[in-house]
Amino acid sequence: MHVCLVHRDLHQLTRGGICTVYKALAARLAERGHRVTLLTQTTPHERDLADADLPGFYRAADWLLSTSRWEGFGLAIAEAMACGTPSLLPADLGTAPELLSGGGGLAYRDDDHLIDLVSTHRPGPACLPEHLHWDANGAATTEIYRRLVHPATAV
User: Fold this and answer.
1) Domain ranges of the chain
2) Residue 74 pLDDT grade (very low, low, confident, very high; cuts 50, 70, 90)
3) Over the range 6-33, which residues count as b (16 or more CB within 10 Å of their CB) and which as e?
4) Which residues contact residue 141 at a Cβ distance below 8 angstroms, ignoring those fewer than 6 apart?
5) Is the CB of residue 86 less than 8 Å from the CB of residue 118?
6) Mind listing the pLDDT tens digit for each residue in 24-54?
7) Which fold is adopted by the domain 2-129?
């Protein structure tokens, strides 16, 4: 299996925390014959991969691995799922149930569970939940603005 980990802030990554987690997990997954790739995006001016290349990168991976339990929504998770790549999310990530509700991956409890999931589950195509698509969000946001600007005509 090819597992990719996307982290948008390399400065945060190298201060400890996730870098230690990533290196330990990557080594354990490699021992089981899995390949792990780290993609970082630090600033809009300094990137390992251009935005236009992200969909291909996500599609080339079998899984997107999120090790963060602290970020708000997880844009990389939604991007990967929109490209059809399922995600492996920490079970205690607050947005995991919402992100995985459309069948877009699996939640893991700890490192051992994660390694077991990667080793025993064949990834299927991910499906981003419908309410997270841009068109649905754009229409809902437009309706909210319409009601705020023209409250008398709200339906």
Assistant:
1) 2-129
2) confident
3) bbbebebbeeeebeebbeebbebbeeee
4) none
5) no
6) 778 888 888 888 777 665 544 445 567 788 8
7) Rossmann fold (3.40.50)
Number of residues that this document lists for the chain = 155
Q: Which three-class secondary structure state does DSSP give residue 108?
A: strand
Which are the contacts of 111, defined by CB distance < 8 A and separation ≥ 6?
24, 25, 28
- Kindly report the CA angle at 71 between 79 and 6, in degrees rounded to 5? 45
Angstrom CA distances, 15 to 9, 20, 32, 148, 152, stand at 10, 9, 28, 44, 53
The Cα 92–Cα 81 span in angstroms is 19
Q: In the structure encoding, which two tokens stand for residue 125, read together? A: 């195509």
Q: Is the pTM of this model over 0.70?
A: yes
Q: Give the tens place of pLDDT for each residue, 87-119.
A: 898 898 888 888 888 888 999 999 899 889 988
In 15-133, which residue ranges form alpha helices assigned H by DSSP?
Answer: 18-31, 54-60, 75-82, 96-100, 111-120
Residue 84 token pair: 């059809």
Q: Do residues 114 and 88 lie in contact, with contact meaning Cβ atoms separated by under 8 Å?
A: yes
What SS3 class is residue 135?
Answer: helix
